[in-house]
Design goal:
Layout lengths: L6 E5 L6 H12 L7 E5 L5 H7 L6 E4 L16 H6 L4 E4 L2 H6 L4 H12 L10 E6 L3 H5 L3 H13 L10 E5 L13 H22 L9 H7 L1 E5 L4 H8 L6 E4 L6 H11 L1
Parallel strand pairs: 1-2, 1-8, 2-3, 3-4, 4-5, 5-6, 6-7, 7-8
Bound molecules: phosphoenolpyruvate.
Length: 269
């Protein structure tokens, strides 16, 4: 993973009020992020505020969700070009809470990925995405980790054109490790992240008969950042980041405080 810049995302979920956002952003603005790429994802209401507070830093501000549609009669949704219009260039897509609580299927996740990456004729910009996938405890116990993760990956890959991969970060987040304090072992997390990287090549091999003539998949798979997410803390980050196919983290709980998020960033610097 030495050729890939480490990436640390903080998913604030439906947390923090205005004052807490201000305090956290001020703390992050004075945190050393020089050697890594850092992103925070506040609730939609706080996007502009966080963006303003972090404007002098290189920390990205991301939405936690994006619409599968463009602008129009879709109550409660935010379209990609509305994010870009506010200079929000990132979105998380397919988080397990969106999948389980709000019933987002693989098809919905794929539609959102496609919509976010779409280059309209008049659109000069695009957004970057962190796409999440991962198995539940029951699926892991049933030894279905590969089957489930590859199925979710296949849906995601189906929404991405080959030339759009530099806009994509993948996050492997086993559902049983999210918010539980039950972190995935470094070896097990590495195993899935490695599988995802090579599977990405395989899907292109299978879906593109001109693959041998047009062999861009290997380098692209190598360049794509694959994150681990699920109960990452400052004290377990180091062992995980040392794994060759883990290129950073998506962090929930520990991203809400400067000390703990800063500790994770430091472990990756
Ligand atoms: C997440 O929600 O993406 C996450 C990884 O949460 P936590 O770090 O709290 O487990």
């Amino acid at each position: 993973s030495s050729s890939r810049t480490y990436f640390i995302g903080g998913n604030w979920k439906c947390n923090l009020n205005r004052k807490e956002v201000i305090d956290l952003c001020k703390g992050l603005a004075s945190t050393d992020t020089s050697k890594v790429e850092v992103l925070v994802a506040p609730v939609a209401l706080h996007l502009a505020l966080a963006s303003e507070l972090l404007s002098k830093t290189k920390i990205h501000v991301s939405s936690q969700n994006v619409s599968a549609t463009q602008k129009g009669a879709y109550t409660g949704e935010i379209a990609p070009d509305q994010l870009v219009d506010y200079d929000i260039k990132w979105s998380i897509i397919g988080h397990s809470e969106r999948r389980s609580i709000y019933h987002e299927t693989d098809a919905v996740v794929q539609a959102k990925v496609k919509n976010a990456l779409k280059h309209g004729l008049s659109v000069k910009f695009f957004i970057f995405i962190i796409v999440c996938l991962g198995e539940t405890k029951a699926e892991r116990d049933a030894k279905k980790v590969q089957e489930v993760c590859l199925g979710q990956l296949k849906a995601i890959v189906g929404g991405i054109e080959k030339n759009q991969w530099d806009q994509v970060v993948i996050a492997y987040e086993p559902v049983w490790a999210i918010g539980t304090g039950d972190v995935c072992g470094a070896k097990e997390a590495q195993e899935v992240c490695q599988l995802l990287r090579f599977a990405k090549i395989l899907y292109y091999v299978c879906s593109n008969i001109n693959f041998l003539k047009d062999n861009v998949s290997g380098p692209v798979a190598n360049a794509t950042r694959i994150l681990y997410g699920g109960s990452v803390k400052a004290d377990n980050a180091l062992e995980l980041i040392q794994q060759p196919d883990i290129d950073g983290f998506l962090v929930g709980g520990a991203s809400l405080k400067v000390d703990s998020f800063g500790g994770i960033i430091k472990a990756c610097q």
